[in-house]
Amino acid sequence: MTTIIASLRIARRFFIPAALLGLTTFAAAAPADGSASDATALTSTADGSIPAYQARFGRQRPLIAIIGENSGTELTDFAMPYGVLAASGAAEVVTVATQPGVLHMRPTLILQPDVTSDQFDARFPEGADYVIVPAVTKYNDPALVAWVKAQGVKGSTLVSICDGAVVIAATGLMDGRRATAHWASEKVRRKMFPGVNWVADVRYISDGKIISTAGISAALPASLAIVEAIAGRDRAVALATEFGVADWSASHSTAPFRPRFGVNLKALITANYTNHWFHSTEMIGLPVAPGVDEVALAVTADAYSRTGRSMVHALSTSSEPVRTRHGLIVIPDTRANAAHHMDRILPEFDATPSGQWFAKSIDGINQLYGRNTAYGVALDFEYPLIPQRSQAKAARISAK
User: Fold this and answer.
1) pTM for this predicted structure
2) What is the pLDDT of residue 319?
3) CATH value of 63-243 in 2.70.70.10, 3.20.80.10, 3.40.50.880, 3.40.50.300
């Protein structure tokens, strides 16, 4: 456990193993029958409202930087805000890396950023209006922490997604502020950064010029809330409808995600431990082509690479970079003509609204690997869904 805490590996499994090792510190707070239900029924409301955008430097639209650390940045944390904010048309969105070269996303995919942090500073010396900080593997990378702090000092609103909060906390700018992050890192965060007022039971919260979100899936409602702050309620409603999202409030309950015997512990252990022990890793191909939905791509690749049984590879007809619907640049892992090296290939993306790919991916994992694995992925995403048993599994049980 000491190694896990010290390394703060915000990657494929992140803090969930640490949370499992600390089981006895968590209180039971959900039905113990394991019945299928939508966990959104267990909520508490908090004021996480985000202040309206105030224009700076004569900009027609706010400038939003999404910063990644080259060696390991959480995929959905990075791509979800990009997809939502770029789709809004209300902001100029720039992807940034701490160093030259590609961004190695976690748990999978490779992205090409628009600029390095040095190039961003040269182009925008006044700084960004918003800086979005995803979870990264090296949370205390000196270049990353220094750049984020410098942006905050310049007056940028700093937005942490999931455990990107520990990066902002490391700058010292979060001290004395309310903030949140992924459920599994709570105990560690409180010990490492006692000056931060860590809160639970919110999907996102704003305090001063610091905005923070809960686990990975909270990137979606928080991004819509930022659109509302920038462009108004009507634009946010229209975009949410396009994304298939009915609610982007801060309402949330953390308790259903914490490890509990007889409720979700088996799912967490399955996805984080036993799948690795008892199954070989399947290589899954995911077709990508110009104009692909970056949110659907990120969520699907992320979800299937969190199962403990599979890893996703982006397949393209060439090795050339692929530009997504709103301009994110994906570097294909493997040419499509090498698809025969894959154990299976997922279908091309359909017209499912972008915001519904969390549920769709979890359902697909349920059908492929079973309820415990799918539930484990949902808990990892901090997504409020308890999967039903697959129809095949239910039929086998009823036949006994």
Assistant:
1) 0.88
2) 86
3) 3.40.50.880
